[in-house]
Amino acid sequence: MAQPSHQVPERIPVTLVVNGTKRDLDLAPWTTLLDALRDHLNMTGTKKGCDHGQCGACTVLVNGRRVNSCLTLAVIKDGAEITTIEGLAKDDALHPLQQAFIDHDAFQCGYCTPGQICSAAGLLAEGRAKNADEIRELMSGNLCRCGAYPNIVAAIQQAMGRP
Amino acid sequence: MNNFQYSRATDVADAIRLLNSDPDAKLIAGGTNLIDLMKENVERPSRLIDISRLPLGKIEETAQGGLRIGALVPNSDLAYHPQVEQRYPLLASAILAGASAQLRNMASVAGNLMQRTRCAYFYDTATPCNKRSPGSGCSAVGGHNRNHAILGASPSCIATYPSDMCVALAALGALVHIAGPTGERRIALEDFHRLPGDTPHIDTNLGASEMIIAIELPPGGFSRNYSYLKVRDRLSYAFALISVAAALNLEGNAISEARLALGGVAHKPWRSLEAEQSLRGRAATADHFAHAADLLLQGASAASHNRFKIELARRAIVRTMMQAASAAPQSQAHKKIA
Ligand SMILES: Cc1cc2nc3c(=O)[nH]c(=O)nc-3n(C[C@H](O)[C@H](O)[C@H](O)COP(=O)(O)OP(=O)(O)OC[C@H]3O[C@@H](n4cnc5c(N)ncnc54)[C@H](O)[C@@H]3O)c2cc1C
Ligand code: SF4
Ligand code: FES
Ligand code: FES
């Protein structure tokens, strides 16, 4: 993403605690959190869709809150706890949302799915959505080009334990 | 994105010193507008001053009975704060009408105030734009301008200011607290953003080495009779074509105080004292609201593609005022417009 420049990129030490593991990196300051995860830590579960905050594919949890990792810099999040799709399952047990997405066939191509599931994990932690309308509204930051929306809402309802 | 230097500000004075020593440096808070614009090469700061760790994240009661909101409070925390939900539900509603849950988690109050226009030509560095590149011309005047201004525009720029939150802040009469090299000052939110005139590259009256440290809400929150209605091309996660913040104090069916602000129509949230005062002492009826709408829309003029916004604004104002009067505010989750 950075354009060719005559300036030697200044590298900054950045520590991220990714899915419970401390990771030390040396990054140019313009490295987004998304690029740090995908290109520097080789964790490609988090997807790059638009790179402009418009699709939600890059959603991860930072200190437990869902954010678009394409619109923040890794250096700004130095020291933060990052949870990605790779960190949701516990050993062999899928996260309830992962299981629910499978149960409800809540995807086709699957490209938006890591972002949908991380976003839904954030939504559950926030505890603001109580019904399908509210789930739809509070998940509107995650687009699905395959149009799996009804199944995504059903999967989240299952994980929430609500009709 | 251009290469840049990175500094982490240690306190407000340090941030101001860093700003003062480099005219091309920029503050960064949530990053949701600035990083987007840097990826488009619209913003090319020499240095980013990271203020995200400064202690400006509190919401406190003021001695006057209002609320002081730190510049770094995330939009979502503000919308869901119990004091805001109970006393300033108009503000909570406007915030929840904007962006997405993820973006609201990241976006700061100050960054929301400072967000730049979504005019497509402003984003496209291949086209002339007086706001991005002063003197180059305005591509929107003879181009695609369906979502552009109907009030307060100039031949130099017909862009709109896109914030939802600030439409509610304007209606509520909020103050902006600012710190700079010579101390602190306050500006009414209404005087914070500028009309484009022939300097559309200057969005606000914030000085080059100044920063926002807080927003202050006065005690009156209009918590009973209010509504925020946002009309847009899709039901969620889209910028407003028109938005209306309406707030009333009623005695019986008579209006003792009215507040009315429009978003998506101008370079700043649009209010008119004349329109609001026309409602004082009047009954809360559609006719009176239509008259106030005409006063607020006085001088409205369309570009080639946005004539519909004038009538849309008129109808949206009446609708939102009626919602406020009947204490049935627009829901931001159930999208049916009552
Ligand atoms: C896809 C998308 C959809 C969106 N939809 C909406 C919408 O529907 N409604 C809406 O209202 N908004 C919407 N937004 C905009 C969003 O609300 C703003 O991007 C956000 O509020 C900016 O806050 P931030 O903290 O991320 O700012 P940053 O990106 O960090 O900064 C923005 C600007 O503010 C300056 N700044 C930051 N802090 C200060 C300070 N303390 N003092 C002075 N200057 C400061 C920065 O220098 C920069 O110029 C949307 C954004 C995206 C990406
Ligand atoms: S309307 Fe303003 S922002 Fe858009 S092209 Fe014209 S000058 Fe630029
Ligand atoms: S890749 Fe971040 S929102 Fe689309
Ligand atoms: S499953 Fe294909 S984009 Fe959502």
From TrEMBL, chain A:
InterPro entries: 2Fe-2S-bd, 2Fe-2S-bd_dom_sf, 2Fe-2S_ferredoxin-like_sf, 2Fe-2S_ferredoxin-type, 2Fe2S_fd_BS, Ald_DH_CS_CYS, Aldehyde_Oxdr_Iron-Sulfur, Beta-grasp_dom_sf. Transmembrane segments: none annotated. Residues 12-88 form the 2Fe-2S ferredoxin-type domain. Keywords: 2Fe-2S, Iron, Iron-sulfur, Metal-binding, Oxidoreductase. It comes from the Bacteria. GO terms for molecular function: 2 iron, 2 sulfur cluster binding; metal ion binding; oxidoreductase activity, acting on the aldehyde or oxo group of donors. This is (2Fe-2S)-binding protein.
From TrEMBL, chain B:
One of its GO terms (molecular function) is oxidoreductase activity. PROSITE patterns: FAD_PCMH (PS51387). Residues 1-222 form the FAD-binding PCMH-type domain. Keywords: FAD, Flavoprotein. It comes from the Bacteria. InterPro entries: CO_DH_flav_C, CO_DH_flav_C_dom_sf, Diverse_Substr_Oxidored, FAD-bd_PCMH, FAD-bd_PCMH-like_sf, FAD-bd_PCMH_sub1, FAD-bd_PCMH_sub2, Mopterin_DH_FAD-bd. It holds the Pfam family CO_deh_flav_C. SUPFAM superfamilies: CO dehydrogenase flavoprotein C-terminal domain-like, FAD-binding/transporter-associated domain-like. PANTHER family: OXIDOREDUCTASE, XANTHINE DEHYDROGENASE SUBUNIT C-RELATED. This is FAD-binding molybdopterin dehydrogenase. It comes from Bradyrhizobium betae. The lineage of its organism: Bacteria, Pseudomonadati, Pseudomonadota, Alphaproteobacteria, Hyphomicrobiales.
